[in-house]
Structures are given as C-alpha cells and as structure tokens.
Design a protein that fits this description.
With 330 residues, the chain is of the alpha/beta class. The chain has twelve helices and twelve strands. The chain is globular. It starts with a strand and ends with a helix.
C-alpha cells in the first residue's frame, strides 16, 4: 500500500507517495512513463519519481486527484489486475468526478465491481455515469441512454448484448438505427437495400467486431442470431428472447419510436441510445427520443441514464469540443 505525505503552500500542493513494492512501478508508470504523462496532461500536475517515491505538484485539488489515481492504479496492480492506458483513463475519469459522499473515491482505490466480459475483451466503466449505465444494463428491461458522442452509450450496450448472447441469456441480438438522418429516404442511393443501409449501420458493425472474432460475427449474422437493420424493418414484428438496441434514436419521429418500443416481447431487453442535442430531423422539435423520455421516464422497469461532456471517453479533446458546442455562444 502507498504511504502518503503532504506539504502545501498557499497556491500549490506537494504530495508524496511511497510504494512498498518497487517491482510494480514499471507497469504503474507505463512504457516511457506514458501513464504518468497521461495523468499530468489530464489533471494539470507535475509528477516526478525517485526510487519508490513519487512526488506530485499542482493545485491542491488536482494534486489530490492525481494521488488518488496513482494509488488506485497501484492497488489494482497489487491485487493482480493489469493496468493499461484504458485503465489509466478509467481511473482518471473516476477521480475527476469525485463526489463528497466518497463513492467515487472507493471506486478509484479498488478494481471495478461491475464489468462486461466478451470473447475479445473485458470492459470496465471509465466514468461514474458509465458505472451507473452498466449496472442498469445488467438490471433493467429497458434503458434510455442520453448524451453526446464518445460517452460509450452504444458501445457498452453492444458489449452487454454480446455478453448475454454468448452466455445464452438471449437468443438473438438486434441492432437498429434510422438509416438516414432525415427519415430513411434511400431510393436515390445506388445498390440493393443492404448496400444502401450498411454505411449508416457501420458504427454498430464496428462495435460488434470489437467484441467478437470476425468469423463469429459473420457466422452469427448469417444464421440470424445477429441482425442489423434500419428501424423501418422492425414494423409488424414482436421481438422476444432478444437484446434490441436502437442507436441514433434522436432521429426517429414519435410515430417511429412508438412503433419500435411496442416491438418489445417476452424475455427481451431494449436499449435506446441518442443525443437529444443532435437532432437531424427536418423539425428538431419532433424527435421521438425526447417524446418517449418525456412520457416514460419514471415508469417501473425503465431506466434513464444521462451522460455529459465529462463522460466522454475518447481523446480528451473530444470532451472539450463537446463542451464548447454545448456552452453559450457569443
């Protein structure tokens, strides 16, 4: 366990950590100290290491968060868990969202209690909202996931769906989205229907290939275990024993959304993902996503999870871009 010491001056703090197992410092710091560099960049601190001691300098709150990140990563290594850049970003995200009740501090200092296992990887939450979302994915029958791009809404839903499919908890996986932003007007595009809609469904394919070997994805698509189709293909069906995901749901009309939600069958699970601030319909005020959330939030068995720019888990610059676009304009 790391030992802590602090000497603070009015505008800056200097924290010192001492680690009692030096052989863990290599994986803790990362190749060429890349983990330390990431912590410095994200939290605005300076970190220096000498022997088994690490010194952190910066504004008091930032230095304390950096200390928590290093302590949390060290504890993960000490308990036999690997630490890579994804883990570093996850713990930084947790520390950056510390709350007074200490919930996040406990998550930072220990390996995550919620995770999704697929054939190719084990996925852990990288923000407190992702933790709540993953808990809802494992618990609730229907979930609305709202927020900007890059927060993991669709990716985590696909991961949970794949985990339940390979675990035998559902018989099939159905992924859908509006084929084009302005109402699925596909006639002018070249090719057959699959060639017309596949470009719009590419993000769903990408997530699948990240969870399963390529040959398994193709085999399961061919057998019908995995179906990827525009929302118009859902009409008239009852979807039982299935995990159903609707992506880009903000670009559905209220009628389309009602149609989709009422496809829900026995032993099914449904996740509706979208960004209410990125509506591409001719009349943005008539989004089926906003209409459905307004009607259904609070209904028993339905969870609503809201992400913000602080939950963006892509490059840190993406979060700053989202904040700039969502903030007040000049």
């Amino acid at each position: 366990m790391a030992k802590r010491d602090m000497a603070a001056i009015p505008d800056r703090a200097r924290l010192e950590l001492q680690f009692d197992q030096p052989y863990l410092l290599g994986p803790l710091f990362g190749e060429y100290d890349r983990h330390l560099v990431a912590i410095e960049d994200r939290l605005g601190v300076n970190i220096s290491a000498r022997g088994n001691r690490v010194q952190i300098e910066g504004e008091p709150d930032s230095a304390a968060r950096a200390r928590d990140v290093l302590t949390g990563l060290y504890n993960r290594l000490d308990q036999g868990h690997d630490v890579d850049m994804a883990a570093v970003e996850s713990v930084i995200g947790m520390a950056a969202q510390r709350q007074l009740d200490g919930i996040v501090d406990r998550q930072v200092s220990a390996p995550p209690q919620v995770m999704i296992r697929t054939r190719k990887k084990t996925i852990v939450p990288r923000s407190t909202t992702q933790t709540a979302y993953m808990e809802a994915l494992a618990r609730d029958d229907m979930i609305f996931a709202l927020g900007p791009a890059g927060t993991g809404k669709t990716y985590l839903a696909v991961a949970q769906a794949v985990a339940m499919l390979i675990g035998g908890q559902v018989d099939r996986l159905i992924l859908s989205r509006p084929a084009v932003e302005a109402g699925e007007r596909l006639g002018f595009l070249p090719g057959d229907m699959k060639e017309k809609v596949d470009p719009y469904l590419r993000p769903l394919y990408d997530a699948l290939y990240d969870m399963l070997p390529t040959e398994q994805v193709e085999r399961r698509i061919a057998s019908g275990e995995i179906e990827i189709a525009p929302i118009a293909f859902m009409r008239g069906r009852t979807l039982s024993d299935a995990f159903i995901i609707l992506d880009e749901a903000q670009n559905t009309t209220p009628a389309q959304m009602k149609m989709f939600l009422t496809r829900f069958g026995m032993r099914a699970r449904m996740v509706i993902c979208g960004d209410p601030n990125q509506v591409d319909l001719p009349d943005p005020g008539k989004s089926g996503l906003a209409d459905a959330v307004g009607r259904l939030e609070g209904v028993k068995g339905i969870a609503t999870v809201r992400f913000t720019a602080a939950d963006v888990v892509r490059h840190p610059l993406v979060g700053r871009i989202v904040e700039a676009y969502e903030g007040p304009t000049a």
